[in-house]
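User: Can you model how flavin-adenine dinucleotide sits in this protein?
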Amino acid sequence: MTYDTVVVGGGPAGLSAATLLARARRRVVLIDAGHPRNAPADHLHGFLSRDGASPQELHEEGIREVLRYGGELLQGNVTRVDGGFTVHLESGSVLDSRSVLVATGLRDELPDIPGAREHWSSGVLHCPYCHGYEVRDRPIAVIGGSNRPFTVHQASLIRQWSSDVIFFTNGIELTEDERIALDARSVGIVDVPVSRLLTQDGSVAGVELTDGSLVPRAVVFVGPTFVPNDALLIRIGCARLDSGWVATEPTGRTSVDGLWAAGNVSDSPAQLINSAAAGSRAAIDINHYLLALDIALAVRSR
Ligand SMILES: Cc1cc2nc3c(=O)[nH]c(=O)nc-3n(C[C@H](O)[C@H](O)[C@H](O)COP(=O)(O)OP(=O)(O)OC[C@H]3O[C@@H](n4cnc5c(N)ncnc54)[C@H](O)[C@@H]3O)c2cc1C
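Assistant: Here's the modeled complex, given as structure tokens:
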């Protein structure tokens, strides 16, 4: 049995694609390892009509929609996709498909600051559009040390949510213009490197510096390095941009015929709603691709 589409990854991109294809009466299976990027967060924001829901709720509702329309679901890890397509799972299962959508997301590599990993998504955040409103008016630290352009921009940006923001450069050498801009935004600047985050009663309470001084802070923003989970796409030979990220057309089409990518795997800034939209757009393009194959086959067999 050959699927019309195998969708790899059950975040918003993969779920919305699988639902659309199932509703288009395509034979679709969604394979998901079950670790969406925002899973550590208690609540999600910025997704129309789902404000404040838990990531788990969104995920479960998405799965229900796929199943409701006859889409299939497999829990597991895809280890390889071969041309044509043959999709290999860690379990040893092998599936054949006419097309594949890879929606495997990205992983956030946090700066190496003791305490950052433990408080990730509670007191340590990266996205003001996701969680800035919830920490408005609190004493905020922005800590450099990784992802320089993102973090320097973040320091000015986050000032929109609080009048008490300090940028801990933590190894980032600011230009004179950057210092002037941060000063004009009334963002404090501390150049002494950070040694660790301090906690009190399980919450972030401040930043300890290498000279032993302590700076009370309630919330810390960091700039993770965004690493795409794109091994499946790279292995099969998808063309890449100069940045190293897989190149896609606006519909998510890759350079490999019949293979699409959507969501954070090829677009790091994409929020939940953008990822869902990218999945939907890819699914429509996949359906049109399959239709062209169906027509060619029907014509040949007349
Ligand atoms: C802490 C945190 C909080 C966030 N909060 C918000 C928010 O409030 N609002 C917002 O808009 N955005 C938020 N985001 C961003 C949001 O998480 C992403 O925009 C979104 O998850 C991207 O969706 P996706 O479908 O591309 O990938 P993901 O949601 O990461 O889903 C990818 C799925 O693919 C699976 N997978 C990976 N590799 C394989 C494989 N080889 N085989 C099978 N399955 C695989 C993974 O297990 C995962 O289930 C947050 C991010 C973080 C880190």
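A couple of observations from the model: Residues 272-300 form the longest helix (29 residues). The mean pLDDT is 97.
User: Helpful, thanks.
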